[in-house]
Recover the amino acids of this structure.
């Protein structure tokens, strides 16, 4: 057996041993083992993948940090600046440490995190629970969890997105908890984002392992892709809570593939679903329409509500749906969604959203920024455009 094959087998044995001891004594209880105190509300920030794919460098990351501050998005809570795949050299150094790509990240990650931190922001990085990342342009962390977690901590990294490619067919429940352990041992609070694509129902075990878990395959910049990820993610609503969130993937708002109405639907569903709000467009060159959507303070506040309960579909009739969920201070979030090709009237009935039949409510329209004059009793009805929605917060008045 060659040295490399031997090393691989040996690392695998360590991985499996570590994971199975973890599995037996601790996965069974429902604590977030990371105990990093993060994710009391869904994370907000930016990630390089949806717009830039592999075409990233330290200049883009710094300029994005600058732009988050200059646009006011940082002040609204978008504070993670997350580097996705393709940031490292294909080979580790002689000590086995990941090496930032010399041609694109010449200053190294510590310098970059220092820069981002001086802006009051946090730096995120990417690795993979496999032998190579998805691009195959850099190594994965499988079998190197301890050394990589230590590198991330020593570089001042605040967030780790951990992908699922080239994993040798080993179950995710054996691979991901090893990194959890390594992050704990590294001693720095690092948000742990499991990018397991929903393969093995990560909602059922993710809370004991990380701070968020992808429930779906990658999103792309189309209505069908976006809405189907919303659907797949909704199924797991009961498993999201402060400390650990369902993740239907990053935002495509501002990337040009969807109409403004569709982007409003996208952002509304992500907000009411307590999904991570990770901007996926080029923040350095952002349009007024895109800003109007992602900088809507009322919709952000709905996402960041401290009760932390993910909304569910409470009624589906043909092309239309009502999504609803409770908020703090006895308020209720309601989304009226028209998935069909024609304008239609949609009704949220009180018995669908958990309000007593005779109760009157005040309704705040989060996209019109208006509290409606009418007090509603029994139902709330509105006419909704094709691929459009309305998003309300209801307050009980009597
Ligand atoms: C900025 O965005 C516009 C579309 O909103 C696009 O046409 C233009 O090419 C972008 N500029 C750069 C430098 O990316
Ligand atoms: C909604 O409630 C109003 C009065 O409270 C009632 O007149 C109307 O029929 C209801 N609409 C639906 C669709 O149930």
């Amino acid at each position: 057996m060659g040295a490399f094959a031997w090393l691989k087998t040996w690392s695998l044995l360590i991985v499996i041993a570590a994971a199975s001891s973890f599995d037996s004594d601790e996965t069974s209880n429902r604590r977030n083992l990371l105990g990093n105190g993060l994710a009391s509300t869904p994370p907000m920030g930016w990630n390089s993948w949806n717009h830039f794919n592999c075409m990233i460098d330290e200049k883009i990351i710094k300029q994005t940090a600058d732009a988050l501050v200059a646009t006011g998005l940082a002040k609204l809570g978008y504070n993670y600046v997350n580097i996705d795949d393709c940031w490292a050299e294909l080979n580790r150094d002689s000590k086995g440490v990941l090496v930032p790509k010399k041609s694109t990240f010449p200053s190294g990650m510590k310098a970059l995190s220092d820069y981002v931190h001086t802006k009051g922001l946090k730096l995120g990085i990417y690795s993979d629970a496999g032998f190579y990342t998805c691009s195959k342009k850099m190594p994965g962390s499988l079998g190197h969890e301890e050394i990589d977690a230590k590198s991330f901590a020593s570089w001042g990294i605040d967030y780790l997105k951990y992908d699922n490619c080239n994993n040798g067919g080993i179950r995710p429940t054996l691979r991901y908890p090893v990194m959890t352990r390594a992050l704990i041992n590294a001693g720095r609070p690092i948000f742990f984002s499991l990018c397991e694509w929903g393969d093995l129902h990560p909602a059922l075990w993710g809370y004991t392992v990380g701070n968020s878990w992808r429930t779906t395959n990658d999103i792309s910049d189309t209505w069908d892709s976006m809405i189907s990820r919303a659907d797949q993610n909704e199924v797991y609503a009961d498993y999201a809570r402060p400390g650990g969130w369902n993740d239907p993937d990053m935002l495509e708002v501002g990337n040009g593939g969807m109409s403004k109405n569709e982007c409003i639907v996208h952002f509304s569903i992500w907000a009411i679903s307590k999904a991570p709000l990770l901007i996926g467009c080029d923040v350095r060159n952002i349009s007024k329409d895109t800003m109007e959507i992602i900088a809507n303070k009322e919709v952000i506040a709905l996402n960041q509500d401290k009760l932390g309960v993910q909304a569910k579909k409470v009624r589906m009739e043909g092309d239309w749906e009502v999504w609803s969920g409770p908020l703090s201070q006895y308020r209720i979030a309601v989304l009226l969604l028209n998935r069909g090709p024609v304008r239609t009237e949609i009704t949220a009935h009180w018995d669908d959203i958990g309000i007593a039949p005779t109760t009157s409510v005040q309704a705040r329209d989060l996209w019109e920024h208006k509290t409606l004059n009418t007090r509603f009793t029994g139902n709330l009805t509105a006419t909704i455009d094709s691929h459009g929605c309305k998003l309300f917060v209801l307050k009980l008045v009597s």
Notes: The longest helix spans residues 3-27. Residues 159 and 191 are 4 Å apart (CA to CA). Residues 282, 285, 287 surround 2-acetamido-2-deoxy-beta-D-glucopyranose (ligand 1) (CB under 6 Å).
